[in-house]
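input
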Amino acid sequence: MGNIDWRNKFDTPIFFVTPDVKRGLGLEDVFPDFHIIVSVWDELIPVLRRKGVSIFCLEEIRPNNSLIMNSGQLLEEKAVLDYIKKESASAVSQIAFFKPSAKLDEIIKMKGFRKVGNDSLTNRYFENKVNMPTVLRGLAEYLLPGKIKRMAGFSFKEEAERFSLPLVVQFGFGWAGKNTYFIEKEDEFNLLKKRFPHTLAKVTSEIKAITVLNNCCLYHGQVLISPPALQINGFSLLSQNKAATCGRQWPAVLPDIRMEKEIKDISFRVGDIMNKNGFRGFFGLDFLIEENSGKIYLTEINPRLTASSSFFTYLEKATDRLPLLAYHYAEFSSVDLPLMTENGKDEIAGSQLSLRNRETFTKIKLPQNFGIYGFQDNKWRIKRADYNWKEIEKGEIIYFPQKRKLPESELARIETKMPAVSSSYRLAPWVDNLFSLNL
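output
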């Protein structure tokens, strides 16, 4: 990252609190006093510790207790608070997190910690997808046409006549495609009405489109924006839910050069609205680019760290950039950083895949150990147990197995410098090989 003296400006201890260690990564090897506090053991933990990363894992000291899968509950644990007190000495502890919650707000305030992130009310105001027409007044041309009301008030017949099938029903909140439903039949629609009669929803048509995302950061009121990435979804090999997010890929090769400029312009306008409403720091945006018309729609605001924030930070560091994530920490830590206009020379490139399809996952013999794998003698073979993005070779993959395969959760993750999706939006041959060869 070129002249890296800026990192020493972060002289107050930072504690990233998260059940999953991967959520807290990105700058763990940059900041001088950075700690990750997790509840769940992961094979990545000893690998990171060997590199000097400070990690507190609750499961190590309480192996037989029920796991805590909530950052707020994790932060109120006595063992966690004792660790923070010991490592902070007399300094004010800074608490970072992936997603805000009322519980985190309460504990951080009660303990006198400094919050590295927005409060939960601000987060929910911008995250509510059904509320976007109200929040983004003046950007109506970039929002999908649809109808909003409580589910009990919808009629399948009326909406089927208004919009072509399948109908897309979307609730205000949902993660990785959850709470987005593609409805072909009236009985499916009525079942949703019965389950969620009072839930506010938006009904739209499905459009044939690719999904693009970017990461942004509001730093001192300025909107900093990443290049766009292709969001990977709609592949049955990766997930049975076609709305589920199954990865992302930089760069996004868009059909028309003007699309990147338009996405950037929309991002600036959204960031300006968020700034005027008190939002600070990191956020992400999702877009649809309609296949036939090329029209761009803004579909989602993620007003927090994103599913790609850690991975994207590694990609930035590999190209000698000052990461967006550093500006997020700087915004809440009262640290001044130089604004990097020509930020890095090489193109940001890399792919991250989430394997979510239990049916295809159980039919193949994936390795159940974390590591870097290379293709050799018609097999994927483990080469080393390490996590160093800069040293990954072009034909290698990093495999992260998820030991606890919870319902609807990610089963495994793969990161690589290779493209995972072709320009014609097909899975690359090496991805298909993962599901036809033993690793």
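quick obs: The CA atoms of residues 134 and 140 lie 9 Å apart.
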